[in-house]
């Protein structure tokens, strides 16, 4: 990508963020809910004695990509289905996955690509409702390197911040390096988490660049006082097409162990139905109406601005919860390029997702 192109993208994509930056900062100040330690709520995870009790681990509850999971709870849709759902904020996709594998949660609200990664490790995980049609990831240059890092190629020998090793943010930078004719090890990665820690790492120059999500991008914009330089951005349809050559890249989803799904089909169907109803609610209501249903603290004291954030989010979400073949193929391609543990392994995509529970 040329410098001009990077700057043009920065202007085009970040423009609406100036309007919402202050609410994003307030959101960051609120902090994420405390994460439950792995192993907590083990009895709930068993799911045998009370199939109506479901524990869902979320890979970062304040990240807007997971809004539908919290909104379903706030709208009472889980309860309407006869389910007693407990949401645990585990503040990272890999942590949420680990908690589920360890048995402390039943279901994960995390990125679909984890099902492919786990199949490569001979562990059967299946996603059963898709919430995001785009990963919402942005590759940003740290303020200290503006004017020095102008393209992905300039990241050689640099340190790139990701939420955690093996996370979607990590896979994204490795994919971009490979697509630009580089080795996946040409840039080092550092775990900077999400929220205030990620923003601080960029603002204080602890990393040279970072892969981030909202609302962290808006928080950084506010704190540095100008639009960060964007190298790649898949929040928009154009960016998604340019980076992945697809119109859909399934991201936030509900997934569980295949064994759990097989033994809890009725419960899984109710969860899928509740999320589908939530996505329909989002599609049919304004950002203001949606914001009014979310927890008060998520608005950071200003629901008007929070509504604007949500309105912008809507374009990245699924409308019906269904996975598409071209979408899952695009995610597999990313993993084959970025993740050596997947590589050329024979991945049976049909075993990584299902739309059956949406019926």
Description:
With 359 residues, the chain is of the alpha/beta class. 43% of the residues lie in helices and 14% in strands. The strands form two sheets. It has a five-stranded mixed β-sheet, sandwiched between helices. The radius of gyration is 19 Å and the shape is globular. The model is unreliable at 1-50 (pLDDT under 50). The N and C termini lie far apart (43 Å). The chain has helices spanning 3-14, 17-30, 42-46, 67-74, 77-80, 93-102, 113-120, 168-179, 196-203, 216-224, 237-244, 258-263, 265-284, 287-291, 303-313, 325-338; strands at 53-58, 84-89, 107-111, 125-130, 138-141, 159-162, 188-191, 209-212, 230-233, 252-257. It has 16 helices and ten strands.
Strand content: 5-15%
Distance N to C terminus? 43 Å
Shape descriptor? globular
Overall mean pLDDT stands at 85
Q: Sheet bearing the most strands, described?
A: 5 strands, mixed
In the predicted model, the low-confidence regions spanning at least 5 consecutive residues are 1-50
Structural class: alpha/beta
Beta strands, count: 10
Task: Give the strand order, joined by hyphens, for the main sheet.
Answer: 2-1-3-10-4
Task: Give the topology string: H per helix, E per strand.
Answer: HHHEHHEHEHEEEHEHEHEHEHHHHH
Count the DSSP helices. 16
Radius of gyration, CA atoms, in whole angstroms: 19 Å
Name the helicity range. Answer: 40-55%
What assembly state would you assign to the polypeptide chains in this entry? single chain
